[in-house]
DNA sequence: ATAGGCTAAGTGGTATGACCACTTAGTGAG
DNA sequence: CTCACTAAGTGGTCATACCACTTAGCCTAT
């Protein structure tokens, strides 16, 4: 038992979440109950919970309890921004990487989707672009659908992280030009390289 | 002061590290000293420290103290592997994303490099491939150089994370075929799309 | 004087108990 | 039936007391 206690507790929590098939939004046992059941001090439980919170895995609400999170990980983003990404280049890096990931997602999507998938996406995308007033939200919602269909959860999670950071830093590079968006959406029927071309045109039309 | 205390402490620590220009390996004040100076309880200090530890920012050694870490973030990798990447598809996701990032890096590199950069890289790459016996290491070293020249730190950090995980899971997809590597390296002189083609051929030659 | 072991101080690790602030549900008065 | 209040439960914080471990300094025996 040389390992640190809060890491053991992390494992127990992990087991608990899996065994009970907890979903995002579900409630975890209270700190006092956990410390009783695991035979550890409440402070140790709290240390474990804090490290989960900073990672965006859980959310704690005073007076209510501890809940499983929907990824989001805004804490992580914030910490990355203060601790790791301190350089001036970081903002540029983030936006650049975001674009790269979106390109990758487009290619992945195209390599996996059949015609029906594509036409469904196009329909959905048109609806999104028409509905949303805020172009940043429209872009995010649209690409959320694309990433879902790209079928790589890890890729999507990183992208969501970057999107949140981009929103925080209010450095949105997204065009309000709806026409460009419609062109881009239509290009989804074409070959991979044409889609990328349309995407690059879209991005550059700021 | 609605914000949570441990987040405030995180800020204070950040300030301290910056003001004193602490380097990786340097020692932080002890928990008791911190709780005195900041006028907070030791348990709150510890909660802040745990969230830094889980992120791989600091390292604590019983009886010695708390020390700043050099990046790498192996803790983060481990946690990703246990908490975020629990699905069965995760290994596939990781390898797939790693490939996508390497493609992105190649394109970034090509968009930024001039002829001299390219020829220098080719020389270096040839040397690496000839020297390294382990194909996984050769691949990692080679792409490390490429990512450095792609000039996006965030992209590189994520790739390093994935590389470490790939090494841990011993699921290396890398060919031992040196010939394919040499072909790939030579392609670096060509246009972007030809490089990508050579890379894909390399990856598929497992 | 030196080598070896011992001791004390400092440090992180953990448990416990005591409050506080907040939320919720239930209870009771109107 | 409605509204206000109360009690229980929950996270947030602090203080204290140990434990386990490391280090440095002292003291002893050689």
What does this protein look like?
- By secondary structure, chain A is mainly α.
- Chain A has two domains: 64 residues, Winged helix-like DNA-binding domain superfamily/Winged helix DNA-binding domain (Arc Repressor Mutant, subunit A), CATH 1.10.10; 118 residues, Up-down Bundle (Four Helix Bundle (Hemerythrin (Met), subunit A)), CATH 1.20.120.530.
- Helices cover 69% and strands 5% of the residues of chain A.
- Chain A is built from ten helices and three strands, in the order αβααββααααααα.
- In chain A, strands 1-3-2 form a three-stranded antiparallel β-sheet.
- In chain A, α4 crosses α8, α5 runs antiparallel to α10 and α9 runs antiparallel to α10.
- The longest helix of chain A has 24 residues.
- The interface between A and B is large, with 41 and 41 residues.
- Chain A binds a DNA duplex (30 and 30 nucleotides) through α2 and α3.
CATH topology of the largest domain in chain A: Four Helix Bundle (Hemerythrin (Met), subunit A)
The biggest beta sheet of chain A reads: 3 strands, antiparallel
β-strand number of chain A? 3
**C-alpha Rg of chain A (nearest Å):** 21 Å
The topology string of helices and strands of chain A comes to HEHHEEHHHHHHH
Helix content estimate of chain A? 55-70%
The CATH architecture of the largest domain in chain A can be named as Up-down Bundle
Mean pLDDT of chain A: 82
What would CATH call the class of the largest domain in chain A? Mainly Alpha
Kindly report the name of the CATH homologous superfamily of the largest domain in chain A.
GntR ligand-binding domain-like
Count of domains of chain A: 2
Number of helices of chain A: 10
Structural class of chain A: mainly alpha
Strand composition percent of chain A? under 5%
Largest interface: A-B, 41 and 41 residues
Poorly predicted segments of chain A: 72-88
**Overall 3D form of chain A:** elongated
- Order of strands in the sheet with most strands of chain A: 1-3-2
Distance between the termini of chain A: 57 Å
